[in-house]
Amino acid sequence: MTNQEMLMVEHLEELRKRIIYTLIAFLVFLIGSFIFVNDIYTWLIRDLGHKLAVLGPSEILWVYFMISGVIAIALTIPIAAYQTWLFVKPALSENERKTTLAYIPGLFILFIAGLSFGYFVVYPTVLGFLLSLSEGQFETMFTSEKYFKFMINLTLPFGFLFEIPLVVMFLTSLGVVNPMILSKARKIAYFLLVVVAILITPPDFMSDILVTVPLLVLYEFSVTLSKIVYRKKLKQQSDNVIEMRKTS
Q: Transmembrane residues, as ranges (predicted)?
């Protein structure tokens, strides 16, 4: 084998190891979440006022796994980010290593913030609006599977979408993107975010608006953060040049 082939094999082995560690962490968190899933289930339906219907013996098990899966994903995010950092660490400078490592806690915090926003703001608003449409005309009854699918579809995407500002900051610090590129891509980004909002929400205008507006705000917030990081990066580069001239 040539040196290049051996290097490629080593990279693939390292990647495989990082993926395995991440999957093990996910399985551990999944099992741990499943142990307490009954209490979590009870808390999530606390405001319904009635029990949910089950159409088959395996449905409640599927619901329990859905709930445990979301919790396991949230807890695995910092582990996955750290394993990714370990994989790319050899290719980074000392300054880049410190910078990228500092983003890992933020990934977890923003994911939880996104889930909280989806669950406490978007989900009850959309659910209340949809229930108001059937008030006095239909008898409303939920099945466990449909109720939690609806809840997760409205909350889980926000966990990932709230990562956008941090991802933009990270890419700006590495020089992959800059605020000028983000500003020029604003129209395309708006269009894509509107499409995402329509895809993850029920087919009604109010739900689309409730999801679209926060996404557009997130994008503009990301552009602002990118400008801050970009200015700091330029200043640091300028300071480094001045320091080099002084020492030469």
A: 20-41, 61-88, 100-130, 150-176, 188-205, 211-230
